[in-house]
Amino acid sequence: MEMFLMVLCMSMFGLAVTAIAFGAAARPGSSSSPVQPELRPVKTVPPGRFFTDQIMPPAAPRTHVPTEDLLRQIENHVRLEQAAAESFLESPSHAQLHTKTTSAFVN
Amino acid sequence: MAPEQSELLKDLNADEIQRILAFGTRYTLPSGASLFHLGDPADRLFLIERGRIRLTLPMQVRGREEDVVVEERTSGQTVGWSALIPPHKFTLAATAPLETEVIALPREELRKHFAANSSVGYQVTLNLAVVIGHRLQLFQAMWLREMQRTVEKHSA
Fold first, then answer.
1. Domain range holding A69?
2. What is the average pLDDT value for chain B, to the nearest integer?
3. Residue B66: how many other CB atoms lie within 10 Å
4. Within a domain: A25
5. Quick check: bond before B87 cis, omega within 30?
6. What residues pair up with B57 in beta bridges, in sequence order?
7. Cβ of A89 and B145 within 8 Å?
8. What domain count does chain B have?
9. Are B103 and B49 in contact (CB under 8 A)?
10. B151 has a chain A CB within 8 A of its CB
11. In chain A, what residues touch B69 (CB-CB under 8 Å)?
12. Could you give the ipTM of this predicted complex?
C-alpha cells in the first residue's frame, strides 16, 4: 500500500512537472530567459525573388557623365525625337511612330 | 527670308501683308540674347526674319535648374503665339543662339486690325492654327514615343 501511494505521488509529481514544462513552452509572448533571442517581425524582410537575387550580379554604378555632356545628350535626344515625330507626321503609321532611336540618352 | 513668306502671313496679298508689318518693330538679337522668359506677359508675337530661336523649358538636372531645348524655330517661322491665345503668358522661354532678326507684332494692334478686317483675321487665324496644330501633333507623337519606352522598361 505504501509502495502504491509512493508510486502514485511520484507519477502525479512527474505529470505536474511535465504539464508546467509544456505550458511554458507553448505559451506565446516573450520569455525572460537570457538564451532566448528576441524575434523581430518578419514583414521587414523583402520578399524573395526567384533567381534574380542569386544569379544577377549587383547593378554596376553608372559612369558619371559630366552635366554639360548630359545636357548635350538631352538636346540631341530632343532633336532626334522631333525628327522621328516629323517623319511620323509626314506619313503616319504604327511603324513610323515606333521607330527605334539611336539617342545615347536612352540607350 | 522676306516677311511675306512667313508662315503666319501665308495666303495674304501684298497689301494686307504690308498693313500688318506696319505694326511691327524689327529687332536684332545678338547671340545668346533672350527674347522672352517663361511666364512673361505675351503682348507681342514674333516673326523670325533671319537666324534662329531656341524655345526652352526649365528642367531639374542634378539638382540644378537647366533650360532644356524643346523646339527650335528658324526664319519664316513664328514664335510667341501665346500673344494671341489667352491667358497671354509665354509658356516657354526663347533665346537666340546666334544673331537673329525678328519682327515684333503687338497684340493689341493686331486684334484691332483683325476686328476691322475679318477676312485678314480669319486667314491669319487659319495660319496660326496650322502652327499650333503642328506643335500639338509633334509633341503628341514625341510623348507617345516616350510613353512606349517607359512601358517597355516597366514590362521588361
1. 64-99
2. 95
3. 15
4. no
5. yes
6. B68
7. no
8. 1
9. yes
10. no
11. 75, 78
12. 0.81
In a domain, A19, yes or no: no
pLDDT in tens, B110-130: 999 999 999 999 999 999 999
B69–A contact, CB cutoff 8 A? yes
Rounded-to-integer distance, Cα B137 and Cα B12, Å: 25
CA distance B44 to B146: 33
Size of interface A-B (CB pairs under 8 A): 45
Distance from CA of A41 to the nearest CA of B (A): 31
> For residue A50, what are the CA distances in angstroms to A55, B14, B156?
9, 73, 16
Length of chain A: 107
Query: How many structural domains compose chain A?
Result: 1
pTM: 0.71
The span from the CA of B58 to the CA of B61, in Å, is: 9
What nine digits make up the cell of B131? Answer: 502652327
| Chain B residue with the nearest C-alpha to that of A86 | B138
Element (H, E) at B136: helix B118-154
Q: Cα separation of B131 and B30, whole Å?
A: 26
Q: Is A77 among the domain residues?
A: yes
* B141/A88 CB distance under 8 A: yes
Q: What percent of chain A has pLDDT over 70?
A: 59
Q: Which CATH number belongs to the domain containing residue B106 in this structure?
A: 2.60.120.10
C-alpha dihedral (B126, B130, B135, B138), degrees to nearest 10: 150
Q: What angle do CA A94, A98, A103 make, to 5 degrees?
A: 160
Q: Which residue in the set B61, B70, B141 is minimally distant from A70, CB to CB?
A: B61
CB contact under 8 A, B139 and A71: no
- Take residue B124 and report the three cell numbers written for it: 491669319
Give me the domain span that covers residue B110: 3-154
